[in-house]
């Protein structure tokens, strides 16, 4: 058995806004890890988007030194993780590189949906959990009540946990001592190198930079390494620690350490997150367990507004994928939107973040089609198939029945909102399961909810209906039979594929009406009459018309012959008929943009 007694690898987990990033800032300050001059708020959230939204999207790893009260200097590897459900995948990856977790709970809020979700992930991975009660500087803080909740709901002892203010720094020193005392140091049973790749990104000068945890053995500059999944070999040109504001090259990384590696890897596909790295000369036989492959749950089409930007979009998606293994995409074409990609995401926030990153980091203007989940169709001929893309939906005559994914959803709210939340879930085709009281004034409402109801604007609406008090978490539990249809939109009789969607029958009419009304408002008038129809199969369920311009063809006639006037009008009518038949209308891109936003 090898031991590395002076290292502590830990992460911070919490519900969103409970103070993870602020605590990370204080820990960096207390350990003098960052120059005063370089210190900024939420220093680990270095993506512009993270600062703006105030949320952590990417996990960040940093190495810091801490001299404890026992006089020994320890190396801490701190990993900040995202709190939102869509990024659970990111969380579970970073947990695999840690031996312990600080569980931050806001003393004014208590245990929330994501507190639990993340804690269960950490417990599953055998991490030592240190509860930390935060925001005790606030008047409304009730640490005793929150400690009770942690003990009751999570079932871990919290009696002696630190009660801190990450904002003022009060008692944060206690947290550091708890890390030293309570979190186990790394141990290893073998001497061959095994390193877990837990993240990577592309640097235009250095190529692929890999973040790794050395689980066994050690790694030196100039070592020849091998990726276990594909056998690809490279020479290490640089390895070292990730300091808060820079990468610090080192001769060697030993087991238990977290750091980075550069090996002249140019192809971003070679460095798969979750892979095991070993040495070419003295390889290990057994790869590390790696990560569960994640399955995207929400799909949509992404198209560049300027068709010429297609290859830039392709390149951008590939680069983002390196940084975010959960993103999947494949090329698709739309008759209305041109060349683009069908992309899969873990959830809607994930989709939104990727879209914004594409726009900001790669300067791309994009069109996004309506999000969809994966539906199942039982065909008349006995076969079963899956579709996420409305373009691949089957003809009604081939369908015996359809199924949609359902989730087990938990909503945490103050008791006074129970009625509102239940009504809302009912509206979203939810099936009530249970209510559990967390304490005298807060409840956990459990519903079975269709995933496709959650992916639109469920959480936003839930928040506004509960004045921001609700927290929400869900997991997919399977499929159920459901009456689904494909809603198609026709303009002048022509199918506009970008607007097609798979939807529950009960919602199709409302949605069809909304889209046709919006299109009527948006499409410019033409020389001829334009019809806009929403259809299920051949059946029209909503219809609007845009009247044509009426050019006054008779204006040049002065008085006189009425038959001549009639003739001219007849001729105009004929012409319009012809135009209507053949007249294709170009729908401006702006119309797609605003209608797809619905
Ligand atoms: P995260 O989403 O868990 O990373 O949370 P943040 O660290 O971004 O904090 C969320 C908000 O709570 C920010 O506005 C912080 O300034 C605030 N905050 C964090 N810790 C404290 C604290 O101890 N006291 C007070 N009053 N506010 C805090
Ligand atoms: Mg944060």
From TrEMBL:
UniProt KW Isomerase keyword: no
Entry EC no(s): 3.6.5.n1
GO cellular component: plasma membrane
Domain Tr-type G: 5-187
Keywords: Cell membrane, Elongation factor, GTP-binding, Hydrolase, Membrane, Nucleotide-binding, Protein biosynthesis
InterPro entries xref list: EF-4, EFG_III/V, EFG_V-like, EFTu-like_2, G_TR_CS, LepA_C_sf, LepA_CTD, LepA_IV
GO biological process entries: positive regulation of translation
Matching Pfam families: EFG_C, GTP_EFTU, GTP_EFTU_D2, LepA_C
Membrane association type: Peripheral membrane protein
Gene3D superfamilies hit by this protein: 3.30.70.240, Elongation factor 4, C-terminal domain, Elongation Factor G (Translational Gtpase), domain 3, P-loop containing nucleotide triphosphate hydrolases, Translation factors
Subcellular location, record wording: Cell membrane
PANTHER family with a match to the protein in the record: TRANSLATION FACTOR GUF1 HOMOLOG, CHLOROPLASTIC, TRANSLATION FACTOR GUF1-RELATED
Family: Belongs to the TRAFAC class translation factor GTPase superfamily. Classic translation factor GTPase family. LepA subfamily.
Function comment: Required for accurate and efficient protein synthesis under certain stress conditions. May act as a fidelity factor of the translation reaction, by catalyzing a one-codon backward translocation of tRNAs on improperly translocated ribosomes. Back-translocation proceeds from a post-translocation (POST) complex to a pre-translocation (PRE) complex, thus giving elongation factor G a second chance to translocate the tRNAs correctly. Binds to ribosomes in a GTP-dependent manner.
Name of the protein in question: Elongation factor 4
Record organism: Candidatus Improbicoccus pseudotrichonymphae
Higher taxonomy: Bacteria, Bacillati, Bacillota, Clostridia, Candidatus Improbicoccus
Gene from which this protein is expressed: lepA
């Amino acid at each position: 058995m090898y031991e590395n007694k002076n290292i502590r690898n830990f992460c911070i987990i919490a519900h969103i806004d409970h103070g993870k990033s602020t605590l990370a800032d204080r820990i960096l300050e207390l350990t003098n890890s960052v120059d005063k001059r370089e210190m900024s708020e939420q220093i680990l959230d270095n993506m512009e988007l993270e600062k703006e939204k105030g949320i952590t999207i990417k996990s960040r790893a940093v190495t810091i030194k801490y001299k404890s009260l026992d006089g020994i200097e320890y190396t801490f590897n701190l990993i900040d993780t995202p709190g939102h459900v869509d990024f659970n995948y990111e969380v579970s990856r970073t947990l695999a590189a840690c031996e312990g977790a600080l569980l931050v709970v806001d003393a004014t809020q208590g245990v929330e949906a994501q507190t639990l979700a993340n804690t269960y992930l950490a417990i599953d991975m055998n991490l030592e959990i240190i509860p930390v009660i935060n925001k005790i500087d606030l008047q409304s803080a009730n640490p005793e009540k929150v400690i009770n909740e942690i003990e009751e709901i999570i079932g871990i002892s919290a009696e002696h946990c630190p009660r801190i203010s990450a904002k003022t720094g009060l008692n944060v020193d206690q947290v550091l001592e708890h890390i030293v005392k309570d979190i186990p140091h790394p141990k290893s049973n073998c001497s061959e190198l095994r390193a877990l790749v837990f993240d990577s990104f592309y640097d235009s000068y250095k190529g692929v930079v890999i973040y790794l945890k050395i689980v066994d053995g050690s790694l030196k500059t100039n070592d020849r390494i091998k990726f276990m999944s594909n056998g690809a070999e490279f020479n290490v040109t640089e390895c070292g620690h990730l300091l808060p504001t820079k990468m610090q090259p080192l001769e060697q990384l030993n087991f238990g350490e977290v750091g980075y590696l550069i090996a002249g890897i140019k192809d971003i596909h070679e460095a798969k997150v979750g892979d095991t790295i070993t040495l070419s000369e003295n390889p290990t036989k057994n790869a590390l367990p790696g990560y569960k492959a994640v399955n995207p749950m929400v799909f949509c089409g992404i198209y560049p507004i300027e068709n010429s930007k297609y290859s830039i979009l392709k390149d951008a998606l590939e680069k983002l994928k390196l940084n975010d293994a959960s993103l999947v995409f494949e090329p698709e074409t739309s008759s209305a939107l041109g060349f683009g990609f069908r992309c899969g995401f873990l959830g809607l926030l994930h989709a939104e973040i990727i879209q914004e990153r594409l726009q900001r980091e790669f300067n791309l203007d994009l069109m996004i089609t309506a999000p969809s989940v994966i539906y199942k169709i039982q065909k008349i001929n006995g076969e079963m198939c899956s579709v996420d893309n409305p373009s691949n939906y089957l003809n009604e005559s081939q369908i015996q029945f359809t199924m949609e994914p359902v989730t087990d959803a938990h909503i945490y709210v103050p008791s006074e909102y129970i009625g509102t939340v239940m009504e809302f879930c009912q509206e979203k085709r939810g099936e009530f399961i249970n209510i559990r009281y967390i304490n005298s004034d807060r409840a956990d409402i459990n519903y079975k909810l269709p995933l496709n109801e959650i992916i639109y604007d469920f959480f936003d609406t839930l928040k506004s209906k509960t004045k921001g008090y609700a927290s929400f978490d869900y997991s997919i539990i399977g499929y159920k039979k459901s009456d689904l249809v494909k809603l198609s939109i026709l303009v002048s009789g022509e199918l506009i594929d970008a607007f097609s969607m798979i939807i529950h029958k009960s919602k199709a009419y409302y949605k069809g009406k909304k889209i046709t009304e919006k299109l009527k408002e948006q499409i410019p008038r033409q020389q001829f009459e334009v019809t806009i129809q929403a259809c299920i199969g051949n059946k029209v369920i909503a219809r609007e018309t845009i009247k044509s311009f009426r050019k006054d063809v008779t204006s040049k006639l002065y008085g006189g012959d009425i038959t001549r006037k009639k003739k001219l009008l007849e001729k105009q009518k004929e012409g319009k008929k012809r135009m209507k038949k053949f007249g294709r209308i170009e729908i401006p891109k702006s119309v797609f943009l605003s209608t797809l936003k619905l």
